[in-house]
Amino acid sequence: MLCTWARDHGIIGTGIDMSQLFTEQAKLRAEELGVADRVKFIHGDAAGYVSDEKVSVAACVGANWIGGGVVGTIELLARSLRTGGIILIGEPYWRQLPPTEDVARGCLAGSISDFLMLPELLASFGRLGYDVVEMVLADQDGWDRYEAAKWLTMRRWLEADPDDELAKDVQTKLTSEPERYAAYTREYMGWGVFALMPR
After folding, report:
1. Domain 45-139+187-198, CATH
2. What pLDDT, in 10s, does the model give residues 82-100?
3. Nearest alpha carbon to residue 189 among 60, 90, 68, 67
4. What distance in Å separates the CA atoms of residue 53 and residue 58, rounded to the nearest whole number?
5. CA–CA separation, 42 vs 25, rounded Å?
6. pTM as predicted
7. Where in the chain are the domains?
């Protein structure tokens, strides 16, 4: 995302990821797109990270554990944000409430209370003192493409590494994930990226 923004909008920025592999892939992507002089990537834990210089956009998409949940992550991102800046946060929500806790767990949530319905999620941002100024929600087709891409990645990995000690576990996951996704996540969960500005 950061590399594409640098290419398309001329921005500068820093990305942080715990995965050495993802950090290296991001650096390669920056070289590929000709933006390595405008972006840097840190291999590390973003939990507690605050930029030395205030930024126009502080983003956390899909890793709100860095602040212990959405509230803490917004508070953490705000510490790096310049006046008039925007926070981007990716957050799941319930499209419809699961009828039971077992269905919630089937969606890979610990409990029904782990997520809010979309109107409640939007209201929660307001209670934190932020105005929602943009949102992009994944539709079911978007979820399908995201999930299926993971299955293809697992399949390709299995073909390349059939003797790896994790191959059996990955095959088990690949066998069960499409059905689990179709039975639970596809119907009950939504996901979006929300742009927030402090009041």
Report:
1. 3.40.50.150
2. 999 999 999 999 999 999 9
3. 90
4. 11
5. 12
6. 0.84
7. 45-139+187-198
